[in-house]
Write a structure and sequence with these properties.
177 residues, alpha+beta, 3-stranded mixed beta sheet, 3-stranded antiparallel beta sheet, 5 helices, 6 strands, 18% strand, elongated, disordered N terminus
Length: 177
């Protein structure tokens, strides 16, 4: 039996350097650029108007499309089309970079508005559970939606939340502590 020992190569050193914070941000900017190009082509194919804005927030690339009359069609009922479009965009980025993307896509400000609604729902549900002592089960939500609810509940002393169930029927349950 023989063993092979590999020495550190310059490529390995470059890979390690790619994981530093400044390089991480440049990789996220690259993800945003790739996603922006992909979405620009999609808007052209659909003949939709929209301005694409690229940003980096909380360790992920964020791409927003605003300003077009037809953009609500890219959101769909309860954000289902937006979720699918986000996944397709992530796959396009992954195909080009070779790395799984955590990119967040917002269209026509839908996610921003939804974040505000869900924060309020989480807060009021937590307050209700705190006052009644009865647990509350919310309707099934996407991971994005559940995270916002969990964050809102965590901000209130005396209650906590957990997710239960399997996708796509996974929901948040709020309990009195």
């Amino acid at each position: 039996m023989s063993e092979t020992v590999q020495e550190s190569s310059p490529a390995a050193t470059e890979t390690e350097a790619a994981e530093t914070p400044s390089n991480t941000e440049s990789l996220l900017v690259q993800e945003g650029d790739i996603a922006g190009d992909y979405l620009e082509r999609l808007l052209d194919l659909l003949d939709y108007d929209g301005d694409i804005d690229l940003d980096v927030e909380a360790g992920r690339a964020v791409v927003s499309i605003d300003g077009g009359d037809d953009l609500e069609k890219l959101v769909g009922g309860r954000g289902q089309v937006l979720e699918a479009l986000q996944e397709l965009t992530r796959l396009a980025v992954q195909q080009e970079t070779g790395v799984r993307s955590r990119l967040m896509l917002d269209v026509a400000g839908w996610r921003a508005g939804r974040r505000q609604e869900l924060s309020e729902l989480g807060r009021t549900t937590a307050e209700e559970v705190l006052s009644t002592g009865k647990e509350a089960r919310l309707r099934p939500m996407t991971p994005f939606e559940r995270k916002i609810i969990h964050d809102a509940v965590a901000a209130i002393d005396g209650v906590h939340s957990e997710s239960e169930g399997e996708e796509p029927n996974r929901k948040v349950v709020v309990f009195k502590s």
